[in-house]
Design brief:
The complex is a heterodimer.
Chain A lengths: L9 E3 L4 H9 L9 E8 L4 E2 L2 E2 L2 E6 L1 H18 L2 E14 L3 E9 L2 H18 L2 E7 L3 E4 L4
Parallel strand pairs in A: 1-6
Antiparallel strand pairs in A: 2-7, 3-4, 5-6, 5-8, 6-7, 8-9
Helix pairs in contact in A: 2-3
Chain B lengths: L6 E6 L1 H6 L4 E5 L4 H11 L9 E4 L2 E2 L11 E5 L6
The chains are: A alpha+beta, B alpha+beta.
Chain lengths: 147, 82
């Protein structure tokens, strides 16, 4: 890892629609961009044994996660002609219906934006040490398994 | 007496952290990760039934790896971010 400290991706609690909207607005000055692709991960109220998920509690090995996200960013910038990339993930409690993952990729044209976005999201799921515990009310929970 | 130099720093996450009571602690040094897993399973037999991988100083290891005193070893259950 480089000496430069990797930028944090973590947000305590859900990622708000306002935060996402502001992120989009900040790109209006970048007029070389012709395509934005956005992925939003939302907490599902899955039914399990008659109970439904009320919220997910997220934890992470933060230092390692930032290193992994840094590597994912570098590899995506090397592989695709991207103008910019933003990755945010929640920590702590995110209720069902709220957003826990926000990936925002911008490029001159849609092909690079779509392809890079898909690859980045898959790598976040596979390589970044983050865990979600699906909760059914305040104290009862089960560890989430990614599909 | 065991000095700090003869220990490793153990960190655990997710369901493994719940099992180990404390997510972060020091642990007597052993020379490789296979022996470390054996001492952990001896102390916490339930680990035998849980899927997890090890990362040494934040690098996920494949197979057995030598470890030196003072390293950080992380016990990582399957990731479930997103």
């Amino acid at each position: 890892m480089s000496e430069k400290k990797a930028k944090s991706i973590f947000i305590e609690g859900p990622i708000s629609a306002g935060f996402i909207g502001d992120s989009i607005a900040k790109h209006q000055s970048k007029t070389d961009i012709g395509a934005h692709a956005i992925f939003l991960g939302q907490v599902r109220a899955d039914e399990k044994e008659g109970r439904s998920v009320t919220h997910i509690d997220y934890t992470a090995y933060e230092e390692m996660a930032l290193q992994k996200v840094h590597a994912i960013r570098e590899s995506a910038f090397a592989a695709y002609p991207l103008s910019c990339m933003h990755i945010y993930h929640s920590l702590g409690t995110v209720r069902s219906g709220e957003i826990s993952l926000f990936v925002f990729v911008s490029a001159a044209h849609r092909d690079a934006a779509f392809t890079a976005l898909r690859e980045i999201v898959e790598k976040i799921k596979a390589d970044v040490p983050i865990w979600g515990k699906e909760m059914f009310g305040e104290s009862d929970g089960t560890w989430k398994v990614n599909q | 007496m065991i000095t700090d130099e003869e220990k490793i720093h153990l960190v655990a996450f997710g369901m493994i952290a719940e099992l180990l009571e404390s997510p972060e602690r020091s642990w007597p040094w052993v020379p490789d990760t296979d022996r470390l897993k054996a001492t952990l399973i001896k102390a916490y037999p339930e680990l035998n039934d849980l899927p997890f991988i090890l990362a040494v100083d934040m690098e996920v290891i494949q197979g057995n790896q030598l470890i030196v005193p003072g390293v950080t070893v992380a016990l990582l259950p399957p990731y479930s971010g997103g």
